[in-house]
Amino acid sequence: VSVQESLERKFGKHRGTVPIVPTAEFQDRISVSVIIFTAFSLSFQQIMRTAMKYNLGLDLRTAAYVNAIEKVFKVYNEAGVTFT
């Protein structure tokens, strides 16, 4: 049920419409929230892959820590700073 439908049910005495038009500012915030949600989703997927890779089960804190260490190592390795 949308916000508009809910308002029409509550306040639309003659079954009229209650138009809901988002402002430009609201549209911008929605866009930002979609970006943040997508980034969070991708990060969580990466953490889950790390948990599966190292057989950590549901220990997501350790998986996130290992994931961060691997990212740092990758940057150092690509820069030629590590000894392998």
Show unreliable segments. Answer: none
Total beta strand runs: 0
Largest sheet, if any? Answer: none
Radius of gyration, Cα only, in angstroms? 23 Å
The ordered string of helix (H) and strand (E) elements is: HHH
Shape call: elongated
Helix content: over 70%
Work out the helix count.
3
- The assigned structural class equals mainly alpha
Q: Which strand-content bin applies to the residues?
A: under 5%
Tell me the domain tally.
Answer: 1
How far apart, in Å, are the first and last alpha carbons?
57 Å
Kindly report the average pLDDT value: 88
Instruction: Determine the oligomeric state from the structure.
Output: single chain
Descriptive report:
The protein is mostly helical and 84 residues long. Helix content is 70%, strand content 0%. The chain is built from three helices and no strands.
Task: Considering the chains and any ligands shown, give keywords for the structure.
3 helices, 84 residues, elongated, 0% strand, mainly alpha
Short description:
The protein is an all-alpha fold and 84 residues long. It has helices spanning 3-11, 24-53, 60-79. The model has no long low-confidence stretch (mean pLDDT 88).
Helix and strand layout, with pairings?
Blueprint: H1 3-11, H2 24-53, H3 60-79
Helix pairs in contact: 2-3
